[in-house]
Amino acid sequence: LLCLVLGVGLGCLVEGWTFLDGLYYAVVTVTTIGFGDLSPATVPGRILACFYLPVSVAGVAKAVQDIAQHASMQWMLRRAADVEDLLKSAKASALSETDFLFLMVSKLYGVDDRVLAALRRQFSRLDRDGNGTVDLGD
Hints:
The protein has 138 residues and is mainly alpha-helical. It is built from six helices and no strands. It has helices at 2-14, 19-30, 43-80, 83-90, 97-109, 113-126.
């Protein structure tokens, strides 16, 4: 929303466009459609556009990423409610809380199984007394 407001402001205040033209410019710009039919013509407008364009496109890309990640997480959490499906996904007959967390982190955030295995090996190296916890005694 901020990206759109800045684009409208750039168009209206600096370029003298109507609100509708400013909104059109902002939407076409932040979505990277860029028809090229409306662009800053003044030197101040072009200078501001040099900053507005990359920041606004990155902002919209981040927003889209956050929305997609949230939707993916909701889908995974709904899927995680089915024990049979979870066990099949883990290729196990039972899951500890730790195994569940590892499974969910790997699925939700795309953490590779090799990374998780490396983390488990690191924990084992740190847990010198083999009691399943890492403390100052290790």
